[in-house]
């Protein structure tokens, strides 16, 4: 049984990280629906990306998770470039 303790703790940690990511996604959705300033939205997206990167490092099979984080990073960079590019 002692060999399961470490695994159980890892599972609980993973679930907590997933829950935190889902909560941050809900905050981002709330900000979007409130038409919050782009800077506030980007701050949450940056924090989401940091949370997701932590989760990927601890995920036992990170390939799909890593791909999702990379897609989020690309989207964040695209969003940042839209903010700094003057609109015509």
Distance between the termini: 65 Å
Strand content: under 5%
Number of alpha- plus pi-helical segments? 3
* Structural class category: mainly alpha
- In N-to-C order, the SSE pattern is HHH
Round the Cα radius of gyration to an integer and report it.
16 Å
Most strands sheet: none
Low-pLDDT runs: none
Calculate the mean pLDDT score and round it. 76
> What assembly state would you assign to the polypeptide chains in this entry?
single chain
- Coarse morphology: flat
**Percent of residues in helical segments?**
over 70%
* Number of E strands: 0
Descriptive overview:
The protein is mainly α and 88 residues long. Helices cover 85% and strands 0% of the residues. It contains three helices and no strands. The protein has helices at residues 2-33, 38-58, 63-84. Helix 1 packs antiparallel against helix 2 (38-58) and helix 2 runs antiparallel to helix 3. The longest helix has 32 residues, at 2-33. The radius of gyration is 16 Å and the shape is flat.
Which tags fit this structure?
mainly alpha
